[in-house]
Amino acid sequence: MRTGAVAAVVGALGAALVAWLAYDLHAAWLTFVLLAPLGCATVLATGLVLRRRTGLRRQAVLLGAIATGQLLAAIGLFVALMFVSGHDALFTVLAAVYSAGLGLWAGRLLSRRVVGDVEAIRTGLAAVGEGRRDVRLALDGDDEMSRLAGQVEAMVERLARTEAARNDLVAAVSHDLRTPITSLRLLVEALDDDILDDADRRAYLARLRTHVGALGALIDDLFELSRLQAGELRWSLEQVGLAALVHETVEAMRPHGGARLVVDVPDSLAPARAAPEQIQRVLFNLIQNAIRHTPADGSVTIRAGAAGDAVEVEVADTGAGIPAADRDRVFDAFFQGGDGAARTNGATGLGLAISRAIVEAHGGRIWLEPSPAGTSVRFTLPSG
Q1: Which of 16, 180, 269, 347 lies 20 to 30 angstroms, CA to CA, from 48?
Q2: Which candidate, 363, 54, 106, places its Cα nearest to that of 237?
Q3: pLDDT of res. 216
Q4: Measured between alpha carbons, how far is 86 from 220 in angstroms, rounded to an integer?
């Protein structure tokens, strides 16, 4: 409010300066003593109205009335003190009243629209709070309120996608837990019956260990993914030569057989700034996925090169590729493609989700690159 009062006084001084230049010092003084008190009174009244949050419509009407009253008071004082002709004074007052009336009418229309927009947004948010996710506000135009409505709709869409992803995740985890837990229960019941010979008992115990290991891997991966997404994991970054890292990873995977592995990474490639163990895990996941979805007579190519201030790595295969409808979700946890085979690292269905979290934690990004045949996955890392 103090700033507003200062602005009112400065504005009155400006008007007085104009009167001084146009007429004389008396006119300037008279202009200042008429406008400054009115301006300060208007600022004070406006502050009192805005201090009490009594509704936009009521505040708009009151502010319009204050502005109109200030205008009429100023004109009335000028007419009383400066006009000689009553005829001119009358027409001046009539013109001021008419203009003020139109201003109030326009302000009322504006306030009605603003209040209507606010009410529409409030109603939409209330519906979201009650569980609806199909809220459409449909505010036309390109003003601040319509843009706010668009942001609210985008927020609701993101919320709906998040809830759908959460539900899919819960369903997927429940499915992946149900099978080994059911098997464990049956195995334990069989062992508890004490009717097995030593050979069967050893076989059952081996299957128990397998299922327990699968459950442990699933829980470990879920825990790691949650920590990655929460930003709780930090690694010591260093300069990593990707040529050596890729060759080491590929050599470790060659004994598994399957598709032919081709490495196209120049030794002169600038190092990346990364945690080598984590990037090797990303490479393992991507290469293993590519092998599992590529025929034995096909090939998997690992390339790397500079991309501006980053290093870009590609794992491309000659398999069947990913359907267009699935491409946006292949990095989601537990996502199963249209053919029912998840492009993951096999055991838990979290390989690509963890890979994305690792790459993004390094400040890079991972995506599916359009490819005429097979699948091409690329990711970037900051240059070292």
Answers
A1: 16
A2: 363
A3: 81
A4: 92
Query: 346 and 263, same structural domain?
Result: yes
Q: Which residues contact 320 (CB under 8 A, 6 or more apart)?
A: 293, 339, 374
- Amino acid residing at 44: L
Give the integer Cα–Cα distance in Å for 70 and 40.
10
Percent of the chain with pLDDT over 70: 84
At residue 347, the pLDDT reads 44
Residues 281 and 377 in one domain: yes
Residue 134, domain member (yes or no) = no
In whole angstroms, give the CA distance from residue 70 to residue 142.
33
Calculate the dihedral angle through the C-alpha atoms of 26, 31, 34, 36, rounding to the nearest 10 degrees. -120
Average pLDDT over residues 31-38: 80
- 204: domain CATH number is 1.10.287.130
Q: What is the pLDDT of residues 94-116, one digit of tens each?
A: 656 665 666 666 666 667 777 77
CB neighbours of 359 closer than 8 A, spacing ≥ 6? 282, 365, 366, 379, 380, 381
- Alpha-carbon torsion 122, 126, 128, 134, what sign? negative
- Quickly count: other Cβ atoms within 10 Å of residue 159's Cβ: 13
Query: Mind listing the pLDDT tens digit for each residue in 35-81?
Result: 788 778 877 887 777 677 666 667 777 777 777 777 777 777 776 76
In which domain, by residue range, is 48 found? 2-129
Site of tokens 């199909």: 134
264 and 303 Cβ atoms separated by less than 8 Å: yes
366 and 250 part of one domain: yes
Is there a domain that residue 120 lies in?
yes
Long-range contacts formed by 254-258: CB under 8 A, 24+ apart: 256/291, 257/296, 258/291, 258/292, 258/294, 258/296
Q: Specify the DSSP element, H or E, that contains 368.
A: strand 366-369
pLDDT (tens digit per residue) in 249-290: 998 888 766 788 999 999 889 999 999 999 999 999 999 889
Contact call for residues 271 and 239 (beta carbons, < 8 A): yes
- 83, pLDDT greater than 70: no
Are 333 and 198 in a shared domain? no
